[in-house]
Amino acid sequence: MSFRKIFDPARHPRPMRxxxxxxGSGTNVVKILENQLQKEDRCPYQVMLxxxxxxxxxxxxxxxxxxxxxxxxxxxxNDITDFYRCRGRSSKGDLSLRPEYDRLxxxxxxxxxxxxxxxxxxxxxxxxxxxxxxxxxxVNVHPADLSVKDGNRRKYTGLNAVRDAMLAGEKRLYSxxxxxxxxxDYGEILMRSQPVDVILPGGVTLQDLARPENAALVKRIAxxxxxxxxxxxxxxxxxxxxEMIGEGRYSLDEQGNVYVDGVxxxxxxRL
Length: 271
Known about the structure:
With 271 residues, the protein is α/β, with parallel strands linked by helices.
């Protein structure tokens, strides 16, 4: 069985060149950069670019410019709201235009000679131009255990994964890094974090949370758990995943199976 490394340091005797794509606070970008700086010359990856789909010079909605300035990393933007507005659309919901947007993004980032793209709270769905150009080399972190299935589908995908897992009665929450594919949150799993326990307020049951009148309470509890999961999950496994890719430790075969150090890992590496 033949398999290929996501990044092969033997062919590229230098740190893996990474772009971080972000749309908001960029906390994952900061943790990836902090890890890089902490390891100095020993870090197997180097963030070459911070890219955002939100042009926000005020740094109120999107911190991309301030992070790039603080860490002295190049910065590029391609504002997706402006892109859609110029084409007569009031929102970015029309995905038929997304390939054109991503082709423009490719032109924006091409000078950086990137090896890998890390989505870090990037809120635009990635389409074929990017997926084809960086095949197997776009990764993301998701606030759920993507190995959990309901029939043939992954059970906890999408923006409300933490809420959905809690309401389904999961006792523990996980973060997962994965390769990005056309179907959102369905790429190959690379790593799963240590768990974060689900802790409900005193006197509150799952039955209480299921009641429509408690929607605000559910939202608050889910937000609190997601913040804990980001700290103990995302911020740990995302830099570690990039390190291991940069070291050439992750490979894929022709069927899309994941290998770590040559060992098959059907659900990724579990910490």
